[in-house]
């Protein structure tokens, strides 16, 4: 089994590439979805979050008030670290559990938007695949997909690793720009062939 860490900036096309890999038989472990499920009503992170940040952060239904939490960590680096100290070990355990259930697959893809920002991920995967696009393309895609303003997309891009930092951490890069979906699929298939050939050697 090969463990692929998939990352890229907002709107680069990670989810699109992830779906293409799944179509070819890979198992997908989505760390954003895991983080969300940990902070739903009854989620494993909710007790520690309430204890650390107060009941104000918990909605009436028992889920995390994500908007308030986002505002807090945006302004307060120590709060961000404390939240990560709660979430990261739980996410790690959930990933291990899901990976153990995918033992029969040749490829397991970990979709980790902040893989480069949180360095500890490198040791968990065999290869890092970066989906890259220019900032102009990131902006136009996310404005179209989410209906966000240019400033809102720019603010997220500014918080994420630079394209250069991501490319420096990559074992493979897909430059998802000027490619239609069939061409993107061909890039994905080319990488899969390389990885499978390397695995047989
Ligand atoms: P986020 O970080 O916000 O989750 P992402 O990196 O997962 O974003 P996607 O959701 O895969 O990005 O892509 C962003 C948008 O751009 C989507 O609407 C997707 O359909 C579109 N898109 C991505 N790549 C292409 C492409 N090669 N051709 C056409 N549309 C594309």
Automatic annotation (TrEMBL):
ATP binds at residues 11-16. CDD domains: DPCK. The keyword Ion transport does not apply. It is found in: Cytoplasm. GO terms for molecular function: dephospho-CoA kinase activity. It comes from the Bacteria. Its EC number is 2.7.1.24. It holds the Pfam family CoaE. The keyword Nucleotide-binding applies. It catalyses: 3'-dephospho-CoA + ATP = ADP + CoA + H(+). Pathway: Cofactor biosynthesis; coenzyme A biosynthesis; CoA from (R)-pantothenate: step 5/5. InterPro entries: Depp_CoAkinase, P-loop_NTPase. Keywords: ATP-binding, Coenzyme A biosynthesis, Cytoplasm, Kinase, Nucleotide-binding, Transferase. Coiled coil: none annotated. HAMAP family: Dephospho_CoA_kinase. Catalyzes the phosphorylation of the 3'-hydroxyl group of dephosphocoenzyme A to form coenzyme A. PANTHER family: BIFUNCTIONAL COENZYME A SYNTHASE-RELATED, DEPHOSPHO-COA KINASE-RELATED. NCBIfam families: dephospho-CoA kinase (TIGR00152). Belongs to the CoaE family. This is Dephospho-CoA kinase. It comes from Variovorax robiniae.
